[in-house]
Specification:
Belongs to the protein kinase superfamily. CMGC Ser/Thr protein kinase family. MAP kinase subfamily. This protein is of the alpha+beta class and 287 residues long. The chain has 2 domains: 80 residues, Phosphorylase Kinase, domain 1 (2-Layer Sandwich); 196 residues, Transferase(Phosphotransferase), domain 1 (Orthogonal Bundle), CATH 1.10.510.10. It has 10 helices and 11 strands. It has a 4-stranded antiparallel β-sheet with strand order 3-4-5-6, with no helix packed on it. Helix 3 runs antiparallel to helix 10. The longest helix is centred in the middle third of the chain and has 20 residues. The termini are far apart. About 10% of the residues have low confidence.
């Protein structure tokens, strides 16, 4: 026996028409981004406050259509119960870092949850590819959820270079490696963890080249074997121009940390080139 199809209703919010199932009532805007908007709503079926996502112009172009399909397909693959309806969270990490100082215990718990989520995502052979503070939602109980799978891909897909926000982007993505793997997400977690610990962005590059220079100053020069993986001749030339040897140095802290284990875990994530980078499980056990 087939299930009864839900009845939808239309509502205009911030000059955008929302068409949602009747079970979701009391819609109110929460935020918006390049690819969509989010509203808070009350789920009359479960009695919970939820967040409903509306994709902006999902079929505007082939690229938009592929991104829309990819997000839906991957969320379904991971058996996400509501697809574009999730529990309503209070804020994202980007807002939290700007507004308050996190304790070491908070940082440890947040990073543990990110790594725990990544372990599940990676076990399904999926790479998120766009981890950053604004894609990590947190509620008042410090519970964290990973958001926005619009750029996620299966590991057996051929990869593209221009993904993720530059400051959290792994070098192999910027260098157009066509078959990078889940370690690009670990790099992003290392960047996020350093930001939570220090209160500032680890690699705030002003452009593509400046980003690579900042990475080299901290991580050092990769070996010849890894340099061969650069597919673009122009990128390879550009990369070699900004190569110079520097010792891996400790992160400069505005004040001493009370949990040196957290700092050592960050360095463990960041001081190796991608082919040697650690897994979420190993990073989690280092916390």
């Amino acid at each position: 026996m087939s299930q009864e199809r839900p009845t939808f209703y239309r509502q205009e919010l911030n000059k955008t028409i929302w068409e949602v199932p009747e079970r979701y009532q009391n819609l109110s805007p929460v935020g918006s981004g390049a690819y969509g908007s989010v509203c808070a709503a009350f789920d009359t079926k479960t009695g919970l406050r939820v967040a409903v996502k509306k994709l902006s112009r999902p079929f505007q172009s082939i690229i938009h259509a592929k991104r829309t399909y990819r997000e839906l397909r991957l969320l379904k693959h991971m058996k996400h119960e509501n697809y574009l309806v999730t529990h309503l969270m209070g804020a994202d990490l980007n807002n939290i870092v700007k507004c308050q100082k996190l304790t070491d215990d908070h940082v440890q718990f947040l990073i543990y949850q990110i790594l725990r989520g990544l372990k599940y995502i990676h076990s399904a052979d999926i790479i998120h590819r766009d981890l950053k503070p604004s894609n990590l939602a947190v509620n008042e109980d410090c519970e964290l959820k990973i958001l926005d799978f619009g750029l996620a891909r299966h590991t057996d897909d051929e990869m593209t270079g221009y993904v993720a926000t530059r400051w959290y982007r792994a070098p192999e993505i910027m260098l157009n490696w066509m078959h990078y793997n889940q370690t690009v997400d670990i790099w992003s977690v290392g960047c996020i963890m350093a930001e939570l610990l220090t209160g500032r962005t680890l690699f705030p590059g002003t452009d593509h080249i400046d980003q690579l220079k900042l990475i080299l100053r901290l991580v050092g020069t990769p070996g010849a074997e890894l340099l061969k993986k650069i597919s673009s001749e122009s990128l390879s030339t550009c990369w070699r121009r900004c190569l110079y040897w520097t010792q891996i140095r400790e992160l400069q802290q505005p004040k001493p940390l009370h949990m040196p284990t957290l700092l050592s875990t960050t360095i463990l994530m960041m001081n190796q080139w991608p082919i040697l980078m650690i897994s979420p499980l190993k990073a989690g056990t280092s916390l």
